[in-house]
Write a structure and sequence with these properties.
Elements lengths: L1 H31 L1 H11 L3 H18 L2 H8 L8 H19 L3 H22 L13 E4 L1 H10 L4 H4 L8 E5 L4 H31 L5 H34 L6 H11 L1 H23 L4 H14 L2 H18 L3 H4 L1 H25 L12 H24 L7 H17 L4 H13 L2
Antiparallel strand pairs: 1-2
């Protein structure tokens, strides 16, 4: 009973750690990897709602830092100068439309990407203790859109006369203030190892639960698969719930809500990908546990695969081919990064080896050729495997405790020994069953 409770505790703890690992992976990569942030910022400017919001901000900065009305007045004939205010207002509306269109052009988008890359590189320098251009004492981290503002000013129709009057401090979005740098450093230093640590602890919990599942390892393995699925679903729910709260708190007006929502959806796309990948890994684990189980279809499949799984060259050759194809495809973050990929490969190889050993116990004489590839041979192997599984599942129900009758207990021990020698029961299962007979429970 104690071992069973401890297994359950480890699985529950592993589920919680998996959920926290999903969040930590997203935050650490999004916040601390410049390439990841640059890629995200590029996708942000592809959103029409974000383009509209950025265009409005740039035009606001243009009019806040330059006397556009005065510039228009100086360009008009003396009689038309009283119309300068109305002309400047009309120019503003045209400037917003022109800026929105400009933000869809490669040149302006490249300025946006470069500004985001520079700002994020500064942020990473701050987190790592500062560099030659960033002070961790009195410095700030800003997103400098001045180059974009200059470009937009050139497109407004007033041209260089306006652009020359824009101060260097215009279009500077402060990301981190000087009095926040120490806090940002502490958070950043904690995030770096946190994601890896949570993954290691999660694997340790699940591995410990499986190690304690003598005689029930398949059921525990299936539970860990469902635990990963649950953690992945938790990540998707967290993205949705947090997104609603973020949009409600940051969208000061209804017109800003689409832009804020798009920023959240794009900014958390990595979180969504990691969550879905965790669900996929969990389903693969569940499928592996099912394949090793007593269901008729699973037994038949093991019987059909037995001649090939027993040959390690075929088993690992096919496995290697599948692994290489998945790495080339790179469907998840884990398959595109060296360390997670190595962990996934090790787990896959361990699963293949466990399946090979089970098949070798159930089909000790399975050979390729001799009808091994025919339907009849597969059915024969499946029937023998079903019989072996049936014999194993009836062991517990038929066992008679030693105190209930010495002859019956001796008979049970002899039958267990026969099943062990024939490969139906492995060493752990044999020891557990023998212990139940001798101890009367």
């Amino acid at each position: 009973m104690g071992r069973s409770v401890f297994r359950s505790i480890l699985v529950v703890l592993g589920t919680l750690l998996a959920f926290l690992a999903i969040l930590a992976i997203w935050v650490s990569r999004q916040a601390l990897e410049t390439d990841q942030w640059t890629e995200t910022s590029s996708k942000l400017l592809e959103s029409p709602a974000v383009q509209s919001a950025v265009a409005g901000y740039l035009v606001d900065q243009l009019y806040a830092n330059v006397d556009v009305t005065g510039q228009v007045r100086s360009a008009l004939p003396k009689r038309a100068q009283p119309l300068a205010g109305a002309a400047a207002g009309a120019l503003r509306r045209g400037a917003e439309d022109l800026t929105t269109r400009a933000l869809a052009r490669p040149r302006v988008q490249q300025l946006w990407v470069q500004a985001n890359r520079t700002a994020h590189a500064q942020l990473v320098d701050v987190i790592e203790g500062g560099g030659s251009t960033v002070s961790t004492q009195n410095g700030t981290v800003t997103l400098n859109l001045k180059s974009m503002l200059d470009d937009i000013a050139q497109r407004t129709g007033v041209g260089g006369r306006v652009a020359a009057k824009i101060p260097p401090s215009a279009a500077q979005i402060r990301i981190v203030r000087s009095n926040q740098l120490a806090t940002v450093q502490d958070i950043g230093k904690a995030l770096k190892p946190l994601a890896a640590l949570l993954v290691v602890l999660m694997l340790a919990c699940f591995g410990g639960a499986i190690a304690l599942g003598a005689g029930k390892r398949r059921q525990v393995l299936r539970s860990t698969g469902f635990a990963l699925v649950l953690a992945g679903l938790g990540g998707l729910v967290a993205q949705k719930v947090l997104g609603n709260q973020v949009v409600d708190s940051l969208a000061s007006t209804a017109s800003l809500e689409p832009a804020v929502r798009d920023v959240w959806e794009i900014g958390t796309s990595l979180l969504r990908d990691v969550a879905w990948a965790t669900i996929a890994y969990g389903l693969i684990v569940v499928a592996g546990a099912w394949l090793a189980g007593p269901m008729g279809l699973a037994v038949g499949l093991r019987g059909a695969m037995a001649p090939y799984l027993r040959d390690w060259r075929i088993a690992y050759g096919v496995t290697t081919g599948v692994i290489l194809l998945v790495l080339l495809w790179g469907p998840t973050e884990g398959t595109r990064r060296p360390v997670p990929a190595l962990i996934l490969i090790a787990l896959v190889l361990a699963g293949v080896e466990a399946l090979r050993r089970q098949v070798s116990r159930e089909h000790p004489d399975a050979e390729r050729g001799e009808g091994g590839t025919t339907v009849a041979r597969a059915k024969e192997l499946a029937g023998r495997a079903r019989a072996a599984v049936a014999a194993r599942t009836t062991v517990e129900s038929d066992l008679v405790p030693a105190g209930a009758g010495g002859a019956s207990a001796v008979a049970d021990l002899e039958r267990l020994d026969e099943l062990h020698r024939s490969g139906v029961l492995d060493d752990a299962e044999f020891a557990a069953a023998k212990n139940r007979v001798l101890n009367g429970h």
